Amino acid sequence: MAPDASDPELRISAGAIRLRKGGVPVVCLTAYTYPVARLLDGHVDLLLVGDSVAMVLHGHKTTLGASLEMMIAHGQAVIRGSARACVVVDMPAGSYEATPRQAVASARRIVGETGCQAVKLEGGVTVARQIAAIVAAGIPVMGHIGLQPQSVESDGGYRIKGRTEENVAALYRDAEAVEKAGAFSVVIEGTVETVAADLTRHISIPTIGIGASGDCDGQILVIDDMVGLTVDRVPKFVKQYADLRSVILQAAASYAAEVRSRTFPGPAHVFSTAADNDKE
Ligand code: KIV
């Protein structure tokens, strides 16, 4: 049965996630499509429609390939496929950095057109005014500090954060800025383990780790990495819980062989003139 995506009573709110600081870890995964959201909804607290969708499903080299329209289309699909999880949609690069006014307009569009519970944006001190403005407009915001995929080109690649004193100090400033601006939680990505653990103890909002620390208040992975569907490089911090790539390759090879040998379709997959043969 399709989930009742329209009943707000069933949803885990951003406020409920905020209260999970120091408690049972918050289980988060990315989701981009209706069927995957349906499969994950019963197992996670939070589904992130990450701008990683641009790379994972659309084949872009970086997350800079994501657009507002792309995020909204995938956000709508994930909302339709879930009833319980708190759904957070990423704000794509270019949709919020310029001014708080731009950020509020984009966040309103995302929430208005998808019905998601919150938005996420990358950055700390530099986007604190944007976070505060979106929160003041009544939209919960998840922050994202540490390694920020939207900045990998300007940063010279995927560089782990927290390896120099200067960088650790910057991470503290970012975490404090995001907390003070009113975010309900913050993703810490690609950061030295001890630094991520210390940041988790330092701020009062839940930290969600990815390539960070087991001491974070929750964890997130990209769904395609977690189930072994990723065709290109898989980051060190990913644990693969399944090997769907092999399952799909095996299925495709069997299908191709059966079509070529005229084994498929067989009698069970074709229609005769008798109506009761049409039952699925
Ligand atoms: O876009 C994304 O999938 C993310 C997660 C990796 C946190 O931001």
UniProtKB/TrEMBL annotation:
Pfam families: Pantoate_transf. CDD domains: KPHMT-like. GO terms for biological process: methylation; pantothenate biosynthetic process. One of its GO terms (cellular component) is cytoplasm. Mg(2+) binds at residues 51, 90, 122. It is found in: Cytoplasm. 3-methyl-2-oxobutanoate binds at residues 51-52, 90, 120. It catalyses: (6R)-5,10-methylene-5,6,7,8-tetrahydrofolate + 3-methyl-2-oxobutanoate + H2O = 2-dehydropantoate + (6S)-5,6,7,8-tetrahydrofolate. This is 3-methyl-2-oxobutanoate hydroxymethyltransferase. It comes from Mesorhizobium delmotii.
